[in-house]
Amino acid sequence: MTQTHILIAGxxxxxxxxxxxxxxxGMKVTVLEAASALSMDLRASTFHPPTxxxxxxxxxxxxxxxxxxxxxxxxxxDRHEGxxxxxxxxxxQGDTDHPFRLxxxxxxxxxxxxxxLDALPDVTLRFxxxxxxxxQTAGKVQASVSTDGQxxxxxxxxxxxxxxxxxxxRRALDIEFEGFTYPERFLVISTDFEYADxxxxxxxxxxxxxxxxxxxxxxxxxxxxxxxxxxPEESDEYVMSDxxxxxxxxxxxxxxxxxxxxxxxLYKVHQRVAxxxxxxxxxxxxxxxxxxxxxxxxxxxxGVHDAMNLTDKPLQxxxxxxxxxxxxxxxxxxRTIAIEYINASTARNKREIEERDPVVRxxxxxxxxxxxxxxxxxxxxxxxxxxxxxxxRAESIA
Length: 398
Ligand SMILES: Cc1cc2nc3c(=O)[nH]c(=O)nc-3n(C[C@H](O)[C@H](O)[C@H](O)COP(=O)(O)OP(=O)(O)OC[C@H]3O[C@@H](n4cnc5c(N)ncnc54)[C@H](O)[C@@H]3O)c2cc1C
Fold this sequence. Notes:
Helices cover 37% and strands 27% of the residues. The protein is of the alpha+beta class. The strands form five sheets. It has a seven-stranded mixed beta sheet with strand order 6-5-15-16-17-14-18. It has a six-stranded mixed beta sheet with strand order 8-2-1-12-21-20. Helix 1 (13-24) packs parallel to helix 4 (106-117) and helix 9 (327-354) packs antiparallel against helix 12. The longest helix is centred in the last third of the chain and has 28 residues, at 327-354. The protein starts with a strand and ends with a helix.
């Protein structure tokens, strides 16, 4: 029997998790990555409990925990008044083996996976290799690629487009990316300033609402990351300038010295879901399939959940004789979650954190306080924010 060949575009967390599952199951896997090395950008920094449960199967969770920070609590705060509600993740004991959020940079996951992939003889990572276009017949997928400008063609049985928000796979298949782009961009600044010494009762994950300028304070092992919205009329140059960055940080917490900043990232934020997650033998996963604002930390986590759901389907068909109809279940399950859950939750999180109406703000804060004070309601809240409900909902879709 010939070995099934699965082509994956993109060596981000979603492409590499997919490659690991398929490679460990004995598939021949080729991963195309346009960049010359794995990205070291500071992007996702939160791993939700079910993602840690999934990665534990490959020994990745212990390795990530060793390099990250275990966040037992998450907080909803008022930027000026401090803690509104604190949620204790240990309430999730029994629902997950990892009742905490792990604060750890996403590049640590991809580096760890690469170490395992390098030991799998049937998995090939092709760096500096860009997917240009995709065509398919009833039985095969053909990809045109270029490696350092040199054109090549690769044939495979199935393909996963995990090539990010600007997915060449999605564009080659002419699949619409439905949704919208917010008018404001988000700015992430990282600093070695120790906020916990100055803001009382700060946890590692803090969503700070404010009618003028909300922010999110996230701890990773060596840094604090501060996320701010910017105003649409501010130019990129101004937002990224030392003066504007210092003004934002000083306005949040005045200090006699300028802040030492280590990274600044300004990015557009979208709520979009691909109209199809499958076209014939080609599937979309992760940011290629859905993108959302970062409030709630659901982008990378949702993408890893896509990868786990998707890769199981061809394995069931190829190795266990399941009907090829099973392949359609991926879109039914994961597109539903992207729309009903990931995009809906992150859009609601943004509305709540930026709410300007004082009556609505007070009502939201009162509800959060009451929810956190009641263990039954707090657990229900955490099951939703940790994406446990979303995974159970996906499983319920035939
Ligand atoms: C500032 C920021 C903060 C974030 N914070 C969080 C968070 O806290 N929690 C969370 O869950 N998510 C967060 N996200 C989102 C998260 O980073 C993404 O959801 C995640 O990276 C998606 O992974 P992916 O593998 O689908 O795509 P990507 O990580 O974008 O990887 C795609 C890969 O494909 C490659 N590629 C692109 N085009 C081609 C091509 N034509 N040929 C070959 N290769 C190609 C790219 O080089 C890249 O390596 C954040 C994002 C940003 C920008």
